[in-house]
Each structure stands twice: as C-alpha cells, then as structure tokens.
Amino acid sequence: MTDTPNQAELAALLPEQWESIAALVDGLDEHVWRKPTTLPGWTVFDVVAHIVGTEAFLLGEKPPARDRSQPDIDVHTLPHVRNETAVFNEIWIQRLRPLTGSALLQRFRDVTERRRKALTEMDNTQWQAQSQSPIGPVSYGRFMRVRLFDCWMHELDIADALGVRVDEGGARGELALAEFLQTVPRVIAKVIKAPEGSRITFELTGPLARTLHIAVEGRARYVDALDGPPTTTVTLDSGLLVRLGGGRVTADSRMGEIGITGDDDLGRQLVRKLAFTI
Description:
The protein is 49% helix and 14% strand. The chain is of the alpha+beta class. It is globular, with a radius of gyration of 20 Å.
C-alpha cells in the first residue's frame, strides 16, 4: 500500500465517517451522552469531544478557555493519561466537558465541515508534505488515513457503549483496517516475540473478512502464501481483531469467539498481547 493515499478518496471518506458519528449521537438524551465507553475514563461525550479537539487542532485552533465554574484538574495525574498525546487529548476533553451533548454535536458538525472544506481545497504539495502524526513523521495524506482509522474506531467505541450495531465494512472500514494492519507484524515481532520461523495465519470473518499470512523471518512480515503449514491459525471476527488491537476488550473475555488451531500457546499470546493503539 502506498504511503500517501489518494486525496480524493480520503477527502470523501473522512466527511462520510464524521457524518456517520454525528448520526449515531444525534438526539441522544443527556444522560446517554455521559455513558462510559470501553476507553478508560471516557464517556460517549468524551469520545466525540476528542474528535472535535483533534480536528480543531488541525485547523490551527487552541482549546477553549477553562470554565471557571469547573474544577481545575491536572490531567497529568489521571490514571488513563500515560503520554503527551493523551495529555493533549484530555485538555480538549476537559475544556469541552461543560457543554451539553447537543451543543457538542453542533460544534462537531461545524469543525468537521470546516475540515472537509480544507481537505478539498488542499493541493498535492500540501497533501504530500511531511507531517508529524501519532505514528511519527509521514505524509499529510498518510496522516489522514490514520485520522480515518481513529474516527472509524471511535464510531465503534460509541456504538458499543450504546449497545447498537453499525456497518463496520465498506470503503471506510477497508481503509481503516488497512491502516490498523500496518502495525500488526511489528507487534508480533517486538511485543509478542513470536519465535523465529513462525508461520501465522489470521482467518478474519465478518464484514472485513480476509486471510492474512505472516512469516517471522528475522522480522515479521505479510506474505502472499506461507512456505509450509501454519504454526498457528487464529480465526476471529474482523471487528474483534481491531477491538483487541485497540485494547477495548481482552481476549480472555471473548475466547469463546476465537478459534485457534496448531500451536495453542502462540495463538493465545497473539490475541492476548495484540493491543497497541494509543
């Protein structure tokens, strides 16, 4: 996959993703906005506020002034804040939290519309320009694919908190999953430390079904076909895979939905230690 995705495609898919989130929360009662999600310390409101903050930052904006009627919290002390990216996210959330859900949604629609316009008007030089992102320095276009994954994942967070189903497939899901899968081999090699010579197959079912082969040969990498039978094969739903990678659920809580053949111990390590997103 190219390092810089197609601008026209992402300039269309990101607004579509934002609208899908807006439709999901439109009309929620205020107490539902404050329902907890599987992200530590964050409610449905906070997830939407996080997106507002990030997109506003990309427009060059700063967090709003602190509401003096609210407690002044040092976000560094919060247990779920573990790095400077999390500090940045939390400041925006804390500053937006006094809003009602409906007021936050209005702000969300405003900032994402301005971001849609900015993406559409960006020229190729800007799209290709080196930019700092959560995965390090990449082209601005690649950064926007990270943004699509992030927003797509947060739609799942909101849907899970509300107990509703959303369409996890389609063009948005395909591109988001592609971004997610870029990191899986590195996690297998560096975190899980799969033994040299391991041949791993993931059989994904569900809306983003596919077969993934990973060979560990000095490093872990995707291959079109393994040069022998898999050391282990892990079968699970595509949505469960990304929730495991996002640290939203634990493998042990969902083991009944995961099939492992071959090396059972390696298979269990693969799903238990997969979490890597911020």
